[in-house]
Amino acid sequence: MIVLHRLNKEEFILNADYIETLEATPDTVITLTSGKKLMVKENVDNVVEQVVRYKQLCHQAISVIKKEKED
User: Fold this and answer.
1) SS3 assignment, position 34
2) Closest to 19 (Cα-Cα) out of 1, 5, 7
3) Contact at 8 Å (CB) between 61 and 45?
4) CA distance 12 to 26
5) Does domain 2-58 have CATH number 2.40.50?
6) Strand 11-14 vs strand 2-5: parallel, antiparallel, or unpaired?
7) CA 16, CA 27: separation in Å to the nearest integer?
8) Interval 10-58: pLDDT, tens
9) Does the N-terminal or the C-terminal CB of the chain have fewer CB atoms within 10 Å?
10) What is the pLDDT of residues 33-46, one digit of tens each?
11) What residue ranges do the domains of the chain occupy?
12) What whole-number distance in Å separates Cα of residue 67 and Cα of residue 71?
């Protein structure tokens, strides 16, 4: 999930897995896998950085701490 802003400065969260393409025309246009297009205030580089960070977090190893059983 990444945090973005519409052109009217309204903040929203986007599931980065649904991004198909990014374009700078000059506003940043995100095309989703559904075909829906979103225009955002962030530049393409910022969106890419957020997506990379999100993907890195998704693929981090998960460690489980085992709680000792109380007597």
Assistant:
1) coil
2) 1
3) no
4) 21
5) yes
6) antiparallel
7) 18
8) 999 999 999 999 999 989 999 999 999 999 999 999 999 999 999 888 8
9) C
10) 999 999 999 999 99
11) 2-58
12) 12
Cis peptide before 26 (omega within 30 of 0): yes
- What the block records as the tokens of 68 is 């000792």
The whole-model pTM stands at 0.78
Listed in sequence order, the DSSP H helices in 9-64 are 44-58
- At 35, list the tokens: 């075909």
Residues in the chain: 71
For residue 6, what are its two tokens? 């519409």
Question: Measured between alpha carbons, how far is 42 from 25 in angstroms, rounded to an integer?
Answer: 12
What type of residue sits at position 48?
V
